[in-house]
Model the fold of this input.
Amino acid sequence: MEDRKWLTTAAGVKMPRLIYGTAWKKERTADLVMKAIQAGFKGIDTACQPKHYDESLVGAALHRLKDHGIERETLFLQTKFTPLSGQDPKQVPYDKNSPIESQVVQSFDTSKKNLQTHYVDSLILHSPVAPHALMMKVWDAMETIQKTGGARQLGISNCYDTEVIRQLYADASVKPAVVQNRFYQETRYDADLRHWCSAHGVIYQSFWTLTANPHIIVSNIVRTIAQKYNKTEVQIFFRYLSQSGIVPLTGTCSEQHMREDLSIFDFELSSDNLKNVSHLLNQV
Ligand SMILES: NC(=O)c1ccc[n+]([C@@H]2O[C@H](COP(=O)([O-])OP(=O)(O)OC[C@H]3O[C@@H](n4cnc5c(N)ncnc54)[C@H](OP(=O)(O)O)[C@@H]3O)[C@@H](O)[C@H]2O)c1
Done:
């Protein structure tokens, strides 16, 4: 059962197949992270981006979890470097006038302090930086963090152009191990990019998975499969994604949904049912 819940990335890092996201939780962040981990989540996604995440409250939860016998080392912890364009100008977590490679270092130092840890399992560039040469400066700084033990693997987010990741992958000495993208029909669900990722051993993490896809969740196909398996429609969609090699993020605030999301590993969809859901996604 356990290998259904974890995969090993190309960087050799054990990553849960479902990750708890901590965006937009504000002062509820610590309590919800505690609840998620106690419910059984093993992976946490955050960012050094005060506009959307309270990274220090993720750290507070990790600290409190120790008292409950849950050590940080048993968890997969992922954070991000957010370039200036993604920060609220009033709360930039680094010196915005310093060179971008120094911003990466400062941001990561803040993340370590916030998270009360000396390393993260995954460090993600929150969005591509242009031009490519400037992005490579950022990536070089991230590589230094990886090579000195600060991050076990690197990744990129909001990267919808396969050419951008192809170039990054070609020029990087530490290759991206994950891509974290919005999973929605406007990009044809990143079909080409995901194809490239699986050919290069890069794991695709999805966000906006439920928010952007109510039409999938309420479709007759998913509803019929849900009835057959005695599961909710959301469980069927998450299970479909997981069996397709995608790692969904869920930021649910409901303890019942936490339990339901985690129990997608208790059953397996048949290949016919996988094909039926794929067909729905391919209709766009
Ligand atoms: N890289 C980026 O730029 C980026 C951008 C956005 C998000 N993210 C990450 O992705 C995480 C997830 O964000 P998201 O945008 O995918 O949305 P989300 O915060 O997971 O919200 C999804 C919605 O689905 C509902 N939900 C969850 N599980 C459910 C279930 N089993 N049954 C029914 N409803 C369910 C939730 O409601 P309830 O609370 O009532 O369950 C919520 O309203 C974030 O916390 C963040 O870590 C990253």
Q: What stands out?
A: The chain is about 45% helix and 15% strand. The domain at 2-212+246-253 is CATH 3.20.20.100 (TIM Barrel).
